[in-house]
Amino acid sequence: MTAPRIIGTGSAVICIVLHGRGQTQDDTEQAVTSRLSLAEMRCVLPKSARPAWYDARAVDPLTEVTRAQLAEGLAAIDAVVAEERADHPGVPLVLAGFSQGACMAVEYAMTRGPWHGALCLFTGCRVGTDHAVTALAGLPVYASCGDADPWIPASAFLDMSGDLIRAGARFRSDLFPGRPHEVHGTEIAMLQGILTDLAAGRAPLDGGAL
Q1: Sign of CA dihedral 176, 182, 186, 191
Q2: Which of 82, 157, 168, 204 has the largest count of CB atoms under 10 Å?
Q3: Looking at beta carbons, which pairs linking 176-180 to residues 24 or more positions away fall under 8 Å?
């Protein structure tokens, strides 16, 4: 995997942002991190080993090839998270992703969560059709999608939302009418608010103290 790109030198909160299918770290920086105020924050932009984290559509049934690619991608994210936690122990961590990156992020949460921080899912859903639900014990989660997105059907987004609610996440979501397959300003504002709250020692999505 290409070395992660690091943006910002703060250490009050870490944000790992996962790119979408066929995207690069430049795309992630343009779509997400360049639109954030990063005082006291550190953003980490991993890059998958291939153009996509996995080749299939997220809503397709899992094949052995997709299972192997998904496991490879999750292991790569594990390595980035482990390095950040080793270098910045105790710092809250936000895992965010757009499109396929959001799909990877929710699968990471459902197999590795919860953690001290939050999860932001911009236009994502669960991968495959047979989903385990892991207890997330109040993990703050923001999820969003367009109502007619070409890659992520609203029904799959809503199924993912149901899984997150059943898992016990502290959940908030938006479904935008007619929104193109892109990161909307409202989504950036939500991510900014979550990062700001965590940096200030507040619990995201409810404003209370950690």
Answers
A1: positive
A2: 204
A3: 176/144, 176/145, 176/146, 176/147, 177/146, 177/147, 178/146, 178/147, 178/148, 179/146, 179/147, 179/149, 180/146
Residue 52 to residue 196: CA distance in whole angstroms: 30
Put simply, whether the predicted model's pTM sits higher than 0.85 gets the answer yes
Map out the domains of the chain with their CATH numbers: 5-199 (3.40.50.1820)
CB atoms within 10 A of CB 115: 18
Instruction: Give every CB contact of residue 196 below 8 A, 6+ residues apart in sequence.
Output: none
Please report the beta strands in the chain, taking only residues with DSSP state E, as ranges in sequence order. Answer: 5-7, 13-18, 41-45, 93-98, 117-122, 140-146, 170-176
